[in-house]
Every structure is written in structure tokens, then in C-alpha cells.
Write a structure and sequence with these properties.
Chain A: It is found in: Cell inner membrane. Chain A: Belongs to the ABC transporter superfamily. Chain A: GO terms for molecular function: ATP binding. The complex is a heterotrimer of chains A (366), B (291) and C (297). Chain A has two domains: 4-233, Rossmann fold, CATH 3.40.50.300; 240-365, Beta Barrel (OB fold (Dihydrolipoamide Acetyltransferase, E2P)). With 366 residues, chain A is α+β, with helices and mostly antiparallel strands. Chain A has helices at residues 42-50, 92-102, 107-121, 136-148, 166-183, 194-200, 218-223, 228-233, 274-280; strands spanning 4-13, 16-26, 31-35, 57-62, 65-66, 77-80, 154-158, 186-191, 203-208, 211-216, 240-249, 252-257, 265-271, 284-289, 294-296, 305-314, 319-325, 328-334, 344-349, 355-358, 364-365. A six-stranded mixed sheet of chain A has the order 6-7-8-3-9-10, with helices on both faces. In chain A, strands 13-12-11-14-20-21 form a six-stranded antiparallel sheet. Chain C is mainly alpha-helical and 297 residues long. In chain C, helix 5 (120-130) packs across helix 7 and helix 10 (215-231) runs antiparallel to helix 13. The longest helix of chain C has 40 residues, at 2-41. The chains are: A alpha+beta (366), B mainly alpha (291), C mainly alpha (297). Chains in contact: A-B, A-C, B-C.
Chain lengths: 366, 291, 297
């Protein structure tokens, strides 16, 4: 059993509040990703879970036990750092063994643990090297090995992939996912990279300015972002956010969006709760459309809007087409060769995936 | 073509001028050392005969022998030997203590920052630039009260007190560049304050330990002000004894012995400089170039 | 169990402060308390030993009425100005020349810098011998045939202070060179390349681009050399012993002889306070700006 409960936790330095009443709770075997830009408080929160920062208010419980007053070594955690933090003067083996030596693990048990971990991570041939003789990916593995031998209740990862090049980052991401599947240990993982969050997490907490914006499964965060901030942060290219006016017809709504020198776009068939329909009828709202929810209109999918493409960027598997909608720049992800710069096109929109936001509070309208 | 040729000719001329300038300056800088060494190897008559810059006609180690074990310092004619020993007895514990204390101070002021840590560092930093005349009188009184006046342990205490300002600066600036994650990782591994210092931080700091030792060694060995102010007679360090030998006013001045004595006082720091000059320069520039 | 772990974690939180405390105490006492103590003595009538009777600024009045102190202050200005200008100029020149891909750079650098490893007493002793009019440089030149060449500054009260400048520059210009060279090595090469592409000549590049970029190094050199100049004591003592007469007296030697030789502890303390204030006026703004820049950067 290794649950983690973060209960109304606060952190402030003097008058400056870094974290404002953060509450997150995850179960055994969960992979929680704390996602946000630098300065959002995610690393501070991780350090507080580790016991490397004091807690200004609230409680952190690991496996049901309050750990606020415990030092890092008594919290039964292991941590992998962004810079890997390998002890530069020790060999890989000594690095992995260091914590066990402090805990007075016997020589035989230490050797066994090192063997298991190095086999698992395929670093057995590196054990007698110094960190300076290793590549970035190898250092990363050693840092994970050092964490694994601890057999902790909780793994903490602090942006572990951000010092690796793009190719290696993808490989190591898979590696971490495999490790999680095999060990089943609860993980808290900090990153600013939304793809890492999407691919690794079972739960994502999107943070901004010391506040959790949304805590949910990755797909839910992607499909139903809690507010404009989350919508823009998760997904690449970002979700298009376009001002519109809402027209209500019975139990569904239509978002009407102005287009320069063209008839207004009408995205019809949006389902909303009856309160929302009542409240927003005839009002200005923000419409959120993912780039892949546009498509070239065909007979089956009648057009919602007609526009002219400004810029077209082929990426290989698909083409990103940029155009003006409602006074803002909008990107559509279309199949290859379907769009050309300067070309007029009729597009349809997958209404079931469209999200609406309040224009003032920028929160999602259901 | 012709233009290119003259261009490269000009460049060559430029190089020649640069090398000539550098060599002339180098010779000027080496001249005093050469004069010291050559004078110390000449018999006195040759010196009075007007041989200053030239090679010795007769090479003799008499002056060195005299400076080492016979020259008179005040009324005692023991040579520099006992004072050389005094300086060694002073410099070894003072260097070891100030470096050790500076290392742990630097560790605390970077990896265990507490409220006011920067202010503490500021207080110590100013100590590096203290004109020691401003503390001579109280220090003399205090050493007297502690019963350390005129003793080697007293001098060690003085050098450690002011040396920790420099050593703390060295180690602090070095440790600032070590990632904090290193200490965090060790804390998660269960290591405590001293364990992290011994097993993680100290093994990475060999270069700065060398810098600190060399700097402190040079400073303390070369010190004159504290030596002349707080010691007298047989407990003096070598710089004070050297100055006494040189300032003897009776009899025919033995310039060769003076120079040999100066060389004896200079050799330890020169050797350190030759062996580890790189680290010496780092110590010199540590106070100036931002960490 | 939880009480004891809490105790131990509280102790752990205080441990760094406890360990640094003795050093801090030593520094507070031997630097700051001792400065105050010197200040206190400077307002008493102390002579051979401290006596704690308040006499106001009498010792400062006496200090500034002493011709010898006026000589010392005047000498400090002459010495500092020349020492700074020559050391900085020579140091900068050598650094620039050494930065031209010189083959034996390491050896030359070592030669320029070795005087810094010597004690000022050794330097003073050596230069005293070199500038000895009877047997030193003057004799060498005379023997070469230029018989009325005179280099007797060391025995000439008007010129003696310049011998201190010569020895001081010899000892410290290598230090200036080392800092300038470090500064030059820190300059991004692409700046120079860009200027070359625009057709700037090398002297122009140095005057207009590189030397202005060395401003931080220049500041460090000037501040640190000023500090060396103000505390210069051993060099004067070994080279001229303050003489001839009082011709090369500096505040540092004045303070020492007043306190330990002439039983004027009060005057000595007053002169020490004057020295401290001069150093503080230079160093504190420097440290303040260095530390602030470090925190911002």
C-alpha cells in the first residue's frame, strides 16, 4: 500500500506564496505527473514530498502516515534528479550502494540489489566507471538504479529527461513507462513537457502559479480541459481558442464565429446542460477546437466554415494549415496534400469534441 | 601578390616586436632573482670588487652556510635555521586549520543556507580586506591576556582567525557551483550533515583545497606584520629574522649572506609556486573574478 | 518515537548554524570588536599601555599636527597613484601581448607572476641591493663607461619613495596581468571576428571594443591594488626602513612605529582608524556591488 495524499498544502517564502492550498490524492501504483511551466510550484511540491523543503501548511501523507516532520531518509522515498546528481567521485557501483551503506545493508544484500538493478537497467557493464565517463542516457539509468535499490514506497522524478537530446528522451520515456509497469511502484513525476505527461501518467495535475488547475486522467485533461490555460498548455499544436456568440436551438447550441470577408462560421450541434444553455444564450463565449478536429468538408461531414489558408506546414504524417477565424490565428491538422497556401477551403468541425469556455472566468462550460 | 607578401611581412614584423617586448619584460622580471642568486654565490671580495650583474668568478656556498647557521640575528648568532623551523611550526597548523574550517564554512554557507547566511558571509568577506593595523593593538593585548604573546601558537591563532575569511571565500565560491541536487540526493539516500560533507562534497573539492592550502601557505609564510608585532627574539618567524639580518649596521655589510638569507626565506614559496602555479593564480584571482 | 525523531530533526536543522558559530564568533571578535577597541583607544590618552580615560579627539588633533604623518599621507598618495598607474598599465600591456597566441605563454606568464609568490621582505631586500648606489645598477653603468650616471634614489630623500614604487610594481604588476588575462579569455571571440569582418584594425579593436569590455577586471585590479598600496608595510620596512629620515614613511609604518617604538599608542590607534576608513571607503562599495551583481546574475 503506497498511497499519497497532499492535503491543503501551502508553501510560502516570507510573503510570497509559492503553493496555495494544493490538494492531490493518488492510489497505489498510480503515476502522477505534475505538469506546468517553470515557476508554477511543481518542483517545490515535489521537494516537499521528498522532505527537502519544509511545509508551511497542510499535510502530506505517504501510505496513510503523516510525514510533515520526517526527514527525507525516514519517508521511504527515492528520487531521480534533473541533473542526475550522481556523486562525481564515486563509481557507478558506489553511487548505487551509497544509500544502502548508510542504512547498514549487509555486503551480500548490497551486491544482490546492485545486480538486480543493473540487470534491469542494463548497466552492469558500467558499474566500475565514474559518472564523468558515462553518456547522458547512461547517467540517467544509473540515477534510476540508485532509486530502485531503495525499494521505496514512492518514486519521485524531477524533470529527469530534460537534459537529454530529443531522440534519447523518447527512448528513456519508454524505459520509465516499462519500469513503472514492471515495478508497480507509485510515482510522482515533475515535468514541463506535456507529451511526457500524456504518455506516462495515470493522473495529471496541471499547475499554474501554485494552484492545481486540473487533476484528472491524461485523456480527460486533453479532451475536457478545465479552463483555457489547461487547454492551451496540453496538446501540440495547442487547442484553438476562438471568440464566438452562442445561439441556442432547443437542447443544442450553435457557436457563431466571425470570419473576415466571408459568411460567419456556424458550428452547430453543441450539447450543453440546460442551465448552461439558458445562461449563455446569445452571449459571447470562447470556443475550443483541437487542430485535429477540423476536416475538409465532404458529403458526410457538411461544412461549418469556409476560409482561406494563410500558411501550410507539411510535417510528414499530416499537414498543419493556418488560417484566420474570429480574429485569431487558428491551426488545423489535416491529412497530407489536402491544403495549399492561398487556397479556399470548406472545413467541418467535430462538434462532439468542441469545448466552450466562459469569456470572463475562462473556465469550461458544461 | 606583392601586397599579400608585404602584408605577411608586416605581420611577421609585428610578431617580432611582440616577442621582443615580452622577452625584455621577462628579463627585467628575472633580473632581481638572478642578482640574488648570483650574489649569494660570490665571495664578499668579489662583490666589493664591483661584480654585480655578472656570473660569479668563484662559486662558493659559504654565504648560504652562514645565512643558514651562523648569521647573527640581534645578539644570537644561530643563522636562519631556528627561524625557518619556527615558520614551519607556524605555517603547517595554521594552513591545516584555516583550510579545514574554511571548507566546512563554505559548505554551510552554500548547501545549508539559513536566514542571514549571506550576511554572515559578508561579515567574513570584509575580513579579507581588513588593514591589519586596525587590529594590531587589541590583538597584542588579547594574546597577552591569553598567555599566547610572543609564542608560535599565538601566531597560529592570529593567522587562523584572519585566514578563515579567505578560505571561506574560496570554498564558498567553489561550492556555489556544485549542484544543490547533489546534497539533496545524498539526503534522500539518508546521509546527514557530516556524512554529506565527508563522502560527497569533500572528495569533489580537491582543486579548491589545493588552492586554499597554497594561498594560505604563501600568505602566512610571507607574513611580516604579525610576526614583528607579536613575537620577539627566538620565537620570530623567518621574515622577521631575515629583516634583522639585513638591517645589521655594524661591520662590513655581507651582501652575499643577505642574498642567501633572502633566498632561503623565498625558496619554500617559490617551490610551491613552481610546482603548483596554476592553483596559485586561481587563489590570486579568486577575490577578483566573480564565482 | 515521533518525539525523538522530531528532536533529532530539529537538532539537524540547527547543526549548520552551530558548526559555523565559532568561526563567526572569531570573526566578530577579531575583526569587528577589535576595530571598535582600536577606535576606543584612539580617543584615550594611551601611551605605552592602554589607559581608558576619554580625551575626545585629542589624539586625532595630535596626529594631524605631526609633520611625520603629513609626510606619510603625502607619500601614500604619490606611491598609490604611481603604483596603481604603472601596475595597471604594465599588467594590461603584458596581458594583451600574451593574448596574441604566444608560443611560450605559460613560461612567460610564470615569469611575470613569480614575484607575487615572494615575501615583500624578500623583495625589499633584493631591490635594496640592486639600487645600492655603490655596488648596484649605478656601479654597473658607471663601469660600462657612463661615469656620471646616477641612480642613487634610495639615499635621496626626494627620490626614495620612487624606489618603493619600482619594487612594488615589480612585485604586483603580474597580478594585474593575471586578472586582465582572465578577463581577456572571457571575452567572446565572435565579437572580435565580427569587428574584423567590418574591417577594424587590431589596435582599433583593442581600444574600442576589448579594453572597454575589461571594465569589471579593471575595477577589480584597481580596488585590490589600492588595498595592497594602503597596507604596504613590509616592503617599505625592508627596502628603506621608512628613510632616509622619514622620507618613505607611509601610514602603515607610521602606525607601527608610533605604537610599538615611540609609545604613542593613542596616536597609533588614531592613524589605524584613518587607514581603516580609507580602505572601507574603497572596499565596501566594491564588495556591495560585487555581491549584488552576483545575486542578480
Amino acid at each position: 500500500m503506497s498511497t499519497l495524499e497532499i492535503d491543503r498544502v501551502r508553501k510560502s517564502y516570507g510573503h510570497f506564496e509559492v503553493l496555495k492550498e494544493v490538494s492531490i490524492s493518488i492510489g497505489t501504483g498510480d503515476f502522477l505527473v505534475l505538469l506546468g511551466p517553470s515557476g508554477c510550484g511543481k518542483s517545490t511540491l515535489l521537494n516537499m514530498i521528498a522532505g527537502l523543503e519544509t511545509i508551511s501548511g497542510g499535510e502530506i501523507r505517504i501510505a496513510g502516515k503523516t510525514v510533515n516532520e520526517l526527514s527525507p531518509k525516514d519517508r521511504d522515498i527515492a528520487m531521480v534528479f534533473q541533473s542526475y546528481a550522481l556523486y562525481p567521485t564515486m563509481t557507478v557501483r558506489q553511487n548505487i550502494e551509497f544509500g544502502m551503506k548508510i542504512r547498514k545493508v549487509t555486503q551480500a544484500d548490497r551486491a544482490k540489489a546492485v545486480k538486480t538493478a543493473s540487470d534491469l537497467l542494463q548497466i552492469d557493464h558500467l558499474l566500475d566507471r565514474k559518472p564523468s565517463q558515462l553518456s547522458g542516457g547512461q547517467r540517467q539509468r544509473v540515477a534510476m538504479g540508485r532509486a530502485i535499490v531503495r525499494e521505496p514506497k514512492l518514486f519521485l522524478f524531477d524533470e529527469p529527461l530534460s537534459n537529454l537530446d530529443a531522440k534519447l528522451r523518447v527512448d528513456m520515456r519508454t524505459e520509465i513507462k516499462r519500469l513503472h509497469a514492471r515495478l508497480g511502484t507509485t510515482i510522482v513525476y515533475v515535468t514541463h513537457d506535456q507529451i511526457e505527461a500524456m504518455t506516462l501518467a495515470t493522473r495529471v495535475a496541471v499547475m499554474k502559479d501554485g494552484v492545481v488547475q486540473q487533476l484528472d486522467e491524461p485523456q480527460a485533461v486533453y479532451d475536457r480541459p478545465a479552463n483555457v490555460y489547461v487547454a492551451r498548455f496540453v496538446g501540440s499544436p495547442a487547442m484553438n481558442i476562438v471568440p464566438a456568440v452562442l445561439e441556442v436551438q432547443g437542447s443544442t447550441a450553435t457557436a457563431v464565429i466571425d470570419i473576415a470577408r466571408r459568411p460567419a462560421a456556424r458550428i452547430a450541434g453543441i450539447t450543453l446542460s440546460s442551465e448552461a444553455l439558458q445562461r449563455y444564450a446569445g452571449k459571447k463565449v470562447l470556443v475550443g477546437i483541437r487542430p485535429e478536429n477540423f476536416s475538409i468538408a465532404t458529403g458526410a461531414a457538411p461544412p461549418s466554415l469556409t476560409i482561406d489558408f494563410d500558411v501550410v506546414e507539411p510535417t510528414g504524417p499530416d499537414t498543419l494549415a493556418v488560417f484566420q477565424l474570429g480574429g485569431v490565428e487558428v491551426t488545423a491538422r489535416l491529412p497530407p496534400k489536402q491544403a495549399h497556401a492561398g487556397q479556399e477551403a470548406a472545413l467541418s468541425v467535430d462538434t462532439s469534441k468542441t469545448v466552450l469556455f466562459d469569456i470572463e472566468s475562462e473556465t469550461r462550460i458544461d | 601578390m606583392a601586397e599579400a607578401l608585404s602584408q605577411s611581412g608586416k605581420a611577421r614584423l609585428g610578431r617580432i616586436v611582440i616577442y621582443t617586448c615580452l622577452l625584455i619584460v621577462a628579463l627585467l622580471y628575472l633580473m632581481p632573482l638572478w642578482v640574488m642568486v648570483s650574489t649569494s654565490l660570490k665571495p664578499l671580495d668579489e662583490i666589493y670588487g664591483g661584480s654585480f650583474i655578472g656570473l660569479p668568478k668563484v662559486v662558493t656556498l659559504d654565504a648560504w652556510r652562514a645565512a643558514w647557521s651562523q648569521a647573527c640575528i640581534g645578539t644570537e648568532c644561530t643563522g636562519l635555521k631556528p627561524y625557518f623551523v619556527n615558520s614551519l611550526l607556524m605555517v603547517i597548523p595554521a594552513v591545516a586549520l584555516s583550510t579545514g574550517i574554511g571548507a566546512i564554512n563554505g559548505y554551510i554557507l552554500t548547501k545549508w543556507k539559513f536566514p542571514g547566511a549571506n550576511f554572515v558571509f559578508g561579515l567574513m568577506l570584509f575580513g579579507c580586506f581588513l588593514p591589519y593595523q586596525a587590529i594590531l593593538i587589541p590583538m597584542a593585548r588579547t594574546l597577552g591576556l591569553l598567555g599566547l604573546a610572543g609564542s608560535i601558537p599565538g601566531l597560529v591563532a592570529v593567522h587562523v582567525s584572519y585566514g578563515i575569511c579567505f578560505t571561506t571565500l574560496f570554498f564558498r565560491n567553489y561550492f556555489v557551483s556544485l549542484p544543490d541536487e547533489l546534497t539533496k540526493a545524498a539526503m534522500v539516500d539518508g546521509a546527514g550533515f557530516f556524512r554529506i560533507f565527508w563522502s560527497v562534497i569533500l572528495p569533489t573539492s580537491i582543486p579548491i583545497i589545493v588552492v586554499s592550502c597554497i594561498w594560505q601557505f604563501t600568505q602566512i609564510w610571507n607574513d611580516f606584520l604579525f610576526g614583528v608585532s607579536f613575537t620577539s627574539g627566538s620565537s620570530s618567524p623567518i621574515t622577521v629574522a631575515l629583516n634583522n639580518i639585513v638591517n645589521v649596521t655594524t661591520g662590513r655589510k655581507q651582501y652575499n649572506v643577505d642574498m642567501a638569507a633572502a633566498m632561503i626565506a623565498a625558496i619554500p614559496t617559490l617551490v610551491v609556486y613552481i610546482v603548483a602555479g596554476r592553483y596559485f593564480v586561481r587563489g590570486l584571482t579568486a577575490g577578483a573574478v566573480k564565482g | 518515537m515521533s518525539a525523538s525523531t522530531r528532536m533529532s530533526s530539529r537538532l539537524a536543522a540547527w547543526l549548520p548554524r552551530i558548526v559555523v558559530a565559532p568561526s563567526l564568533l572569531v570573526v566578530i571578535v577579531t575583526v569587528y570588536l577589535f576595530i571598535l577597541w582600536t577606535g576606543l583607544i584612539s580617543v584615550t590618552s594611551s601611551k605605552f599601555v592602554p589607559t581608558y580615560d576619554f580625551v575626545g579627539l585629542e589624539q586625532y588633533v595630535r596626529l594631524w599636527a605631526t609633520p611625520r604623518w603629513h609626510t606619510a599621507v603625502a607619500n601614500l598618495f604619490i606611491f598609490s597613484a604611481l603604483f596603481l598607474a604603472l601596475s595597471t598599465g604594465l599588467g594590461l600591456l603584458m596581458a594583451i601581448l600574451l593574448d596574441q597566441n604566444i608560443r611560450a605563454e605559460g613560461a612567460l606568464r610564470a615569469i611575470y607572476l613569480y614575484p607575487m609568490a615572494l615575501s615583500f621582505i624578500v623583495t625589499g631586500t633584493a631591490w635594496k641591493w640592486i639600487m645600492n648606489p655603490g655596488l648596484g645598477i649605478q656601479r654597473v653603468v658607471n663601469d660600462l663607461g657612463w661615469t656620471d650616471f646616477r641612480f642613487d634614489w634610495i639615499t635621496d630623500p626626494q627620490m626614495a619613495i620612487y624606489t618603493v614604487v619600482v619594487a612594488g610594481v615589480w612585485q604586483s604588476s603580474g597580478f594585474a596581468m593575471a586578472i586582465f588575462l582572465a578577463g581577456l579569455r572571457g571575452i567572446d571571440n565572435s565579437v572580435i571576428k565580427a569587428a574584423q569582418i567590418e574591417g577594424a584594425t587590431l589596435p582599433l579593436i583593442y581600444r574600442q571594443i576589448i579594453i572597454p569590455m575589461l571594465r569589471p577586471a579593471m575595477l577589480s585590479v584597481i580596488v585590490l591594488l589600492s588595498y595592497i598600496a594602503i597596507k604596504s608595510f613590509d616592503l617599505v620596512l625592508a627596502l628603506t626602513n621608512g628613510g632616509p629620515g622619514t622620507a618613505t614613511e607611509l601610514p602603515s609604518t607610521f602606525m607601527f612605529s608610533a605604537t610599538f617604538r615611540r609609545n604613542q599608542m593613542g596616536v597609533g590607534a588614531a592613524s589605524a582608524v584613518m587607514m581603516l576608513m580609507t580602505v572601507a571607503a574603497i572596499i565596501i562599495p566594491y564588495l556591495y556591488s560585487e555581491l549584488r551583481e552576483k545575486n542578480n546574475g
